[in-house]
Amino acid sequence: MRATVIYGAGDVRVTDVPDPKLVEPTDALVRVTHSCICGSDLWPYKSMPRVEEGQRIGHEFLGVVEEVGAEVRGVRPGDLVVAPFVFSDNTCEFCREGLHTSCVNGGFYGTDGVDGGQGEAVRVPQADGTLVPLPPTGDEELLASLLTLSDVFPTGHHAAVTAGVGPRTTVTVIGDGAVGLCAVLAARRLGAERIVLMGRHPARTDLGVEFGATDVVAERGAEGAARVRELTGRGTHAVLECVGTEEALATGLRVARPGGRVSRVGVPQYEQGSVGPAMFRRNVTLTGGIAPARAYIEELLPDVVEGRVRPGRVFDRTIGLDDVPGGYRAMADREALKVLVKP
Amino acid sequence: MRATVIYGAGDVRVTDVPDPKLVEPTDALVRVTHSCICGSDLWPYKSMPRVEEGQRIGHEFLGVVEEVGAEVRGVRPGDLVVAPFVFSDNTCEFCREGLHTSCVNGGFYGTDGVDGGQGEAVRVPQADGTLVPLPPTGDEELLASLLTLSDVFPTGHHAAVTAGVGPRTTVTVIGDGAVGLCAVLAARRLGAERIVLMGRHPARTDLGVEFGATDVVAERGAEGAARVRELTGRGTHAVLECVGTEEALATGLRVARPGGRVSRVGVPQYEQGSVGPAMFRRNVTLTGGIAPARAYIEELLPDVVEGRVRPGRVFDRTIGLDDVPGGYRAMADREALKVLVKP
């Protein structure tokens, strides 16, 4: 089959790879109908050291089950399913706590012999724990929103949940990428009435306003933080940090109200952060982490299916599998917000 | 009157200072009967740059009200009272949320014309919001425990509360100083059954075991973290970081179970901490901060008065006011765990 392989910074190729086959009785084969490129795929695209043997990439997909292992009970061939971006057994002590990203039998697509999501098909380990059946549909707008359940929408939701967002919470969202916009949507869905979106790309922040942002702050760093404080008085209860840079973390810690919570869901591109006395004196909490998307899909699904939220609007470009390298370029150059791939 | 003044590292003196007088109608004058030296006083004692005009020091005290301003209603002359280590109005938006350390009318002893606690008397601003009346007693053992309500016991409690300690929580406490031992006591009081105390001073860890620690780990750093994981499998749900060094924070982040919470209550002696991808991947939360002692006193008081907890056992030396410089030396040299001062 054809699948996406990365060989180093700037070098993404769509090549022939072995067809996936069932290996474990708990596996399922999924024919991918919709996949996409993640902001986190851009980090290796920007900085991965060159490798001889490329690495499979992509971790967001939905598709149709083709074949299941002998022990799989929850999905069957022909089912439309979405795959959260980490596979998990949904039964271990961490899964039972809703922390599927720490599943003792879980893992990541594109590593250890598991296919990446940007390809024609994927062998999904722990299929019963991982795959969530969806109502059959041919509605491409709905399918785009369903695809966001694999990562970007639950990731925004995870930021909002771990930051304690609710009806009486004021919120700052840092970053107008797809995760930031989904975090706005998630915060609004959880009842937040005041949502300040920090971003400086008008086309993106405009969508953020449609998703529920009440204020947009284009300034960054200390200046941006000052502007948020000016707007909100003492900062906001919740800060959803959806970028992953040290500067974004520092901004988040600055705009949190005393006693507030900064939740980060962008993969940290730093080892050290400014968590010193200023944060301590104000009792600001740093929370979040890699989102256990699997834990949230059932909760978010009805609102997506019934059209109360339309997270699929973050996709502003659709391409075929062979155009994936161009999709990476477009996202890296900020010509596209988020690229949907139809293999 | 006589009071303690610090002039720089290693230079603490007890000198004559002006007698305190009521300034605001919300003030009270408190004759200090019991004060003490805090682990956080040792940071300036170790590193404060030399100053010409010394600075008053000390922030933990209990005593008898001598005089109150015209607007004070909650305490009257003759009352035995304990003062939390930050004064606060107990009515502002932060106080109502239990975050008295961010009170908009609050502040610290020893600065801005407010007396320090290591002296004969203190003018207490925001007396109604700050001072908590105590049942009269002459029992010195009980008075020592009541004194801990000003800081060290609520600080340990704050660590436990913000880390979410409860009956099903496993806990690591980092640090066998007075705060660490009080954190053990607080965690046990909140129902934790497994409490690993990281400390290497047997006299202190022995008291920690009496307070409720089930395991003691003497190793530090990576070795200590490995030992805690060995004992607990995957680390503990809650980590109470009661030291304040970057190493202690790093250890805390290592011994937290995925999804766990590290709460720090020792004043950070660092600007940058290791909050990078390893913490993110495991969804570990960093919380805590300066403890709003005032928020907890009513809750903790009955257990202290009725002897169910005896946090005053952290005091292993009692001195007079003139001996305060020697008290600092003894604590800095780890000859004393915590020094009680009777002016």
UniProtKB/TrEMBL annotation, chains A, B:
Keywords linked to the UniProt accession: Metal-binding, Zinc
Domain Enoyl reductase (ER) positions: 8-341
UniProt cross-references to Pfam families, sorted A to Z: ADH_N, ADH_zinc_N
Keyword Nucleus: no
Record's keyword annotation contains Zinc: yes
Cofactor: Zn(2+)
Species lineage: Bacteria, Bacillati, Actinomycetota, Actinomycetes, Pseudonocardiales
InterPro entries assigned: ADH-like_C (IPR013149), ADH-like_N (IPR013154), ER (IPR020843), GroES-like_sf (IPR011032), NAD(P)-bd_dom_sf (IPR036291)
A single GO molecular function term of this UniProt record: oxidoreductase activity
Membrane spanning stretches: none
Organism of this sequence: Amycolatopsis arida
Protein name as catalogued: Threonine dehydrogenase
